[in-house]
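Work Package 3 (structural annotation) set out to generate three-dimensional models for the target panel prioritized at the project kickoff. During this period the team completed the workflow that converts sequence records into C-alpha cells, so that structures can be stored uniformly alongside our sequence database. As a representative example, we reproduce one entry of 215 residues exactly as it appears in the project archive.
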Amino acid sequence: MKSYQYILLDWDGNLAKTLHIWLESTVSVLKSHGYNQTEDEVIEILSELADMERRFGIKNIEKIIDEIDGEVKKRLPNVELYPDALYVLENLHSRGKQVALVTSANRHLVFDALEKYNLTTVFDTVITGNDVKHYKPHPEPLEIALKRLGGNKEQAIMIGDTSKDIGAANNTGIDSILFFPPEHKRFYDIDKLKEHQPTDIVSDFKEVLDIDRKS
C-alpha cells in the first residue's frame, strides 16, 4: 500500500480562506478605476488576473494588479484558516511527515499569516511565487519543494483547490488531493476540476488524515 511521506499544500483557498479576500479586493480596486465588473465576472479571471486586460479591456494592468496585491495584504492579517487545517498540519508534522507549502502567491502576502498561526515551525520548507520561474501547473514549484525536502515522487502528494494544483501534481508525476468544501461551489466548477483526475477529493480538511492513514 502506498505511503505518503512528503505532503505538499497550496495556500490560497486551500489552507487559508482567501478567495473572498481576493474577490472583494479586485472588485474594489477595479471600481476605483471606473471599471464595474460584477463579482461573477471577476471570479472567472480570479486565478489569472492578468487576463483582465484581454477580457475586460483594462489598461495599466500591472499598476492595477499591484494595487490589488496591496489591498489583499491589508486584509490578510484577519485571514482565517479553513476548519481543522491547523490541526491537520500539526498532526502530520507530529507523525514525522515532511510538509511543504507550495504557493504562487508573493512571499510578502503569505508570511505574516504564517507567523500569526505559528505555521513557520510546521512547514519544513515554503515555496512562493518569488522562488520559481514557472508557476503551477508547471512542475517546477513541486519539484523544488521535493528537492528541498530530500523527497521522492513515489511518496509525495499535493493538496490543493484548483486545476493548477492538480495539474502541477500530474505534471510532476505525484498523487493529489482536491480540497472542495461547499463554499467553493461559487468559485469553481467541480466537474471541470474532476477532469484533471485528482487521486482523491475531500470536502473537509480532516479527511486528509483519513487518506494518510490508509496510505
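The two ends are 6 Å apart (CA to CA).
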